[in-house]
Amino acid sequence: MVKLLVIILPALFIVTLSAYAGPLITLSADDVHSPFLNAKGVRVSLAGPQASLLEVRLDEVAIQGKVWRDLHFSCHKFQVANDWIRCEDGVLKLSGSAPLPVSFDFSSRNKILDLKITTGARGAVADWRLSAQWGKPIWEGMLTVTNGEVARIAELLPEAEKNLLPVPAKGNMNGTINLRGAAGGLAGIEAHLAVDGLAFSDASGLHAGENISVEVNAMATRDERNEGNSWAWHADVNWPSGEVFWQPVYFAAQGHRFSGSGELDESTIRLRTGKLVLSNIGEMNLSGLIDRPGNTLRDFDLSADNLELSTLFSQVLKPFLVNTPVAELQAAGHAGIQWRYRNNAHEFLQVDLRDASVEDGHGRFAFRGVDASIPWQAPRNQGNVESTKAAIRIQSSQLGKIPIGQVDIPLEIDGSNLRIPRLTLPVLDGELTLENFSASRQAQGWVWQFSGGLSPISMQKLTEALGTQPMKGTLSGEIPRVSYNGSTVVVDGALLFRIFDGTIEMGNLKLLDPLGPAPSLLADLDMRNLDLNLLTGTFSFGNMQGRIDAAVHGLELFNWKPVKFDASLMSSSGSYPRRISQAAVQNISSLGGSGAAAAIQRSFLGFFEQFGYSKIGWSCSLRNGICHMGGIESEPLPHGYLIVKGGGIPAITVIGYNRDVDWWELVSRLQRITQVEAKPVIQ
After folding, report:
1. pLDDT of residue 15
2. DSSP secondary structure letters along 144-207
3. Residue 493 within a domain
4. Cα Rg of the chain, angstroms
5. Which residues, other chains included, contact 472 with Cβ-Cβ below 8 Å and sequence gap of 6+?
């Protein structure tokens, strides 16, 4: 604003000598050039009695690369003496901005300029006052602002500048700016400013602020020893109140502060030493270098020792996780960080955690009591990677509902490659071992692989942890190579588990989008020689003795719910006791719907607790939410299907009649007969 007024003064000298020559004096120039400014389409006129009306129009003004257009200044009480110029009623107007009332006194003999701009109505008057004095070899000036409207400053910015940052809508400024210089131009600036009630926004709605108060104390001194335009600067900024949303981060001020010193010139801005204090988070030491005019970061250093992880994560880090599988993470504890950025690339990063915890809001996982020192080093210029080793200890973890004991992770880091030769996880009363885990960052995202095994885990402890029906026995298994390609988990070979004195093989296993909102699973399951006594004794189903083989092929789960499979169950081959209780008979019969129990020896049921059988068979093909059921294929019936074929004394046969059953109705039946002790009805 002040610069725009100052450009008018040279023109006034030209017309001063002729001020009384006639009623109208006009001066025009197509181009005006000087080290300070360039102007085009300059028109200056004096009119009225004793040349008391001044009009100045400029089509375009450029000051240090900033361009204004359609500038108009008029003064209706203009006075000129031998060495003195006064304007008591002036108006300055730029294209697209409101008129600004201006008054000034200028003395060429005393080399003094006193300029004042007053805006606002009674009770909300805003003053901008510039007092300047010059001589040889220096000049000095002071701009005093009282209740200055920040929005008015935005109006006077060049159009190109207005598009760079959000436009202030309201806010008042108070303070002083001291200027000093010499013949070579501006040599020093010292500013003490306070802004209250600042509000800003942009058209996209991605950047906005409300009720912001900011205190700024800054100074800059030009290095006269340097032929270029080089400045040394220092600034202290205090942000005591207000709210800012800068997509995607939201900050509510609670006493944040910044202090920094450095240098700037036409090509770079250097922060030599800086300290950022974020309330309820901690202190960070900063330094860096920005290349101008594109304002791109070339070098940067950040270090902090004791950051409050909970607030840091919720205010700074978590907004960047929105719409990701880990958007509901919560963190606590303390963290330290060291980051080095050189020549537009990351060079070194170290993260230290102390008594930290990370928990998933959906309950999928949790890590507590984490102490870690994780260093990372970028590859050298020759492409060689300097390997680093991290020290990570986790006191306790949880995967789903399964607890995991203390773990020490021997993590090796080679650039974007991670490796763990061997890791043992205490799971309940057993261990899960991972072998040759490796992960790397690829174009499609993170990819990883591992193999391992599971030592025997008590099924009773496992089911208690999962909150499901208690089971007996143990669970153990072998894990072949498991890999993840950025979107899909694939198992090479079959997962082998030992349970209920038999084996379960899971083959062709694929898990699609495992951390997404609706993961999908594809697999084939083959169960061999399961002990029915152990299996049925787990549930309120009734006792069965014998062994069975089962298969679930073409299994497809969407969001962990079955949408398709072909399942079958049949008696295992071999010689073993084959007995079934009354309760088991009734429950098996109920799977086929009402009237499904057709006992051959109905009249004898009431006299026996156990019955013999020779074969069991059942199948379900799930399509479109309907389970198409069948029985022992080698024993076809004209009506219905055979589920249990009698054998021995006394023998019993169970026939099912309903072949098509709604899947969720079938699940409901299974839940009722396995969770509630059923009372068989004997006919």
Report:
1. 43
2. EEEEEEHHHHHHHS-HHHHTTSPEEEEEEEEEEEEEEEETTEEEEEEEEEEEEEEEEE-TTSSE
3. no
4. 41
5. 459, 460, 534, 537, 538
Q: What's the confidence (pLDDT) of residue 492?
A: 87
The pTM (predicted TM-score) of the whole model is: 0.71
Distance (Å, whole) CA 311 – CA 591: 54
What are the angstrom distances between the C-alpha of 275 and each of 153, 283, 305, 506? 29, 7, 13, 56
> Is residue 635 situated within a structural domain?
yes
Decide which of 415, 431, 449 is a domain's last residue: 415
The Cβ of residue 478 has, within 10 Å, a number of other Cβ atoms equal to 14
Distance (Å, rounded) from C-alpha 583 to C-alpha 312? 59
> What is the spatial distance between Cα 470 and Cα 654, in angstroms, rounded to a whole number?
28
Contacts by 2-7, CB closer than 8 A, 24 or more apart: 2/115, 2/130, 2/143, 3/37, 3/63, 4/61, 4/63, 4/68, 4/71, 4/92, 4/94, 4/156, 5/73, 5/92, 5/102, 5/104, 5/115, 6/113, 7/37, 7/39, 7/58, 7/61, 7/63
411 with 545, same domain: the answer is no
Structural domain harbouring 409: 267-415
Q: Which two tokens stand for residue 491?
A: 């198992």
- In angstroms, the first-to-last Cα distance of the chain is 102
What pLDDT score was predicted for residue 549? Answer: 93
- pLDDT on residue 525: 92
216's tokens: 């700024």
Gap between the Cα atoms of 368 and 211, Å rounded: 39
- Token pair 């929005």 in the structure block, residue: 151
In a domain, 380, yes or no: yes
Q: What is the DSSP letter of 136?
A: S
The tally of domains found in the chain comes to 2
Find the Cα–Cα–Cα–Cα dihedral 220, 221, 227, 230, rounded to 10°: -20
Helical axes 582-590 vs 663-675, angle rounded to 10°: 160
Yes or no: say if 256 and 263 are a contact pair by the CB < 8 Å rule.
Answer: no
pLDDT at residue 669, as a whole number:
74
Contact criterion met (CB below 8 Å) for 653 and 632: no
Under 8 Å between Cβ of 328 and 361? yes
Contacts of 584 (CB under 8 A, 6+ apart): 536, 541, 542, 543, 544
Q: Are 641 and 620 in contact (CB under 8 A)?
A: no
State the Cα–Cα distance between residues 228 and 264, nearest whole angstrom.
11
Across the chain, which has 683 residues, the per-10-residue mean pLDDT values are: 45 41 67 71 82 84 74 87 85 78 86 83 73 81 89 64 70 92 82 93 84 94 74 94 87 89 92 94 96 88 95 87 81 95 92 94 89 88 72 93 93 90 93 92 86 88 81 81 88 83 88 82 92 73 84 92 93 88 74 46 56 88 93 82 82 82 83 52 32
